[in-house]
Amino acid sequence: MDLNPLAYSVTRAKLSSYNPTEVRFALRDLKQYIQDNRDEYEVAEVEEEIQEFFHDKTLREILAAKEFFEGKEEDRHYLLKACTSHILHGNRPYALSRRSHNVIPIPPKGEFEYKPLIDSLSDKVERTLKYNPPAEFVEGEAYQGDAFDIPDMVGTVDAIITSPPFLKTTDFLRQNRVRLWFNDWGYSKQDDMKQEFLENKQMESYTNLLNPFNQCLEQDSLCILHTGVVNGEDMALQLANNAPEYGFDPLGIVYENTEAMESQGRTDRGSTKEHQFLILRRK
After folding, report:
1. Domains plus CATH for the chain?
2. Digit-coded pLDDT (tens) for 80-125
3. How many CB atoms within 10 Å of residue 107?
4. Which of 117, 33, 121 has its CA nearest to residue 69?
5. How far apart are CA 273 and CA 256, in angstroms?
6. How many angstroms separate the Cα of 20 from the Cα of each of 26, 79, 125, 137, 167?
7. Cα–Cα distance between 151 and 135 in angstroms, integer?
8. CA atoms of 253 and 250, how far apart (whole Å)
9. pTM for the full predicted model
10. 54, 95 Cβ separation under 8 angstroms
11. Which of 8, 23, 192, 193 sees the fewest Cβ atoms within 10 Å?
């Protein structure tokens, strides 16, 4: 469950199994839609920052794909949507953008080059379909919504495993702006939603999250939160200290130093040097 539409699309795609033939039929329909409609879009009407990432012909195809997915709720369409989101930008041959970054859309460099969307997407989809789920795979359900609404949207659960945005460190909207734009949250929508996200708020906001978690968890069930030590502020320890008044027993905190981890091409690793796993049990 996530408020972020990009997270929802990717999670929905990962929780389903697929008939490869149906996926390829959907890919064929997308290809036809792009061919029929790509010349109808005005690139100049798109946010200027988005324009900087793509050749005009590629951007028109992305706009056609964006419209194609509107209102489609089949699992196979979410697979295609998630795969398209993946290839939107990066520094590898499959990326549709000028040279940028695979995870964060840093300002692109290099010449504008036309890259057909369907070519890159077809390769990505075929790579994905090679990995068949194991025999014990069980399909899941994804929800797009606020974590505070879990009791109403999801009901009773027997475990919660979550990683809330770390305290005052990450602007998920800004860092995912291109993929969010493709997943129906344009820049104006992203600006409107800033106050709905936990990031950049005080610890009280995180502590308050324990209340809806308590409401939906069964007795003796576990709640595991992935947090961090941010600028010397120990999120897990603060949550553990407040957990009993929200109906939880703190069982322990696991610390993991991340300074030696792969940087994914980023020179600034941020203010979080140590990650944590806080394990709580509902009373």
Report:
1. 17-129 (no CATH), 147-282 (3.40.50)
2. 999 999 999 999 999 999 999 999 999 999 999 999 999 999 999 9
3. 10
4. 33
5. 9
6. 10, 11, 10, 17, 41
7. 31
8. 8
9. 0.89
10. no
11. 192
